[in-house]
Amino acid sequence: MELVRRKKKTVAEAKEEMRAGARQTRKILAIALCLLTMFAALLYSRLRADELTREIDAANAQLKVEQGENVRLNMQLDAMISLERVENYAKNELGMTKVEGYQIEYIDLSGADSVTLSGNKTVKPLSAEDTGKKLSEYLKGE
């Protein structure tokens, strides 16, 4: 067995080796810092997502409560304005009765248009030609 001796390094080689070690250390620290930053960002985004999920769940729970209240109020409103209740109020409180057939009066609108003035005078509507003539006379200033 033979003993192998190391060759002595020069000062320049030693400095170069130290610089290489320092560069290696800086690279490792930079990579570690990047990984730590990414981990912190991921952790923050997860926390924020959980917080928003809790807010959404709380809002959904409140919405269900409000929808139930809306249903209850609509049922209460329907009960207050039911037809039977309105009829009872009209009969008992206001003294009203249901309309009978003889109380209904029909109006015939199939006749010609006319205006009745006091003294039983009637005015017949103008035709389209008469209206056009009167309008042109008015515009001419006659």
What attributes characterize this protein structure?
142 residues, mainly alpha, 3 helices, elongated
Give unreliable regions as ranges.
none
Strand order across the biggest sheet?
A: 1-2
Largest sheet: 2 strands, antiparallel
**Helix count from the secondary structure assignment:** 3
- Give the class from helix and strand content and strand pairing: mainly alpha
Mean pLDDT: 87
Give the tally of β-strands.
Answer: 2
Radius of gyration, taken over Cα atoms and rounded to an integer in Å: 49 Å
Measure the end-to-end span.
142 Å
Looking at the structure, what is the overall shape? elongated
Could you estimate the helical fraction of the residues in percent? Answer: 55-70%
Q: Summarize the helix and strand pattern as letters.
A: HHEEH
In words, what does this structure look like?
This protein is mainly alpha-helical and 142 residues long. It has a domain at 11-86. 65% of the residues lie in helices and 4% in strands. It has 3 helices and 2 strands. It has helices spanning 11-80, 83-92, 128-140; strands spanning 115-117, 121-123. It has a two-stranded antiparallel sheet. The longest helix has 70 residues, at 11-80. The radius of gyration is 49 Å and the shape is elongated. The mean pLDDT is 87.
Which helices and strands, and how do they pair?
Elements: H1 11-80, H2 83-92, E1 115-117, E2 121-123, H3 128-140
Antiparallel strand pairs: 1-2
